[in-house]
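re: ur question from earlier - yeah i can do the single chain one, its not a big deal. heres the input i used so u can compare w yours
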Amino acid sequence: MVLGLVMALMSASAAWGAAETVSTVSTGVTDAGNKMCPVSDEDVTKKHFVEHNGKRYGLCCPMCANKFKRDPEKYLKKMGSKAAAHTHAGHDHHH
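and the output i got, formated as tokens:
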């Protein structure tokens, strides 16, 4: 059940992504605006990024960029399921 939901979210966000890239012709890349590194779950640095499918994802370090490029779908799926889980969590930050 959860997998189907994630896949539906992924395809919906892909459609949105296509619409966004049309409106941001200047750069052609949309910032994903993620706060956590999709590879390590650390805070992003605002210095390290990786681009995938016209979106720019923040990372915590250059090593994560290499890992992300090797298997972007794996990390995007992980990030998608985390984001879905976080919407219900509210303000409980884990330290």
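The beta strands are 30-31, 48-52, 55-59. not sure if urs matches, ping me
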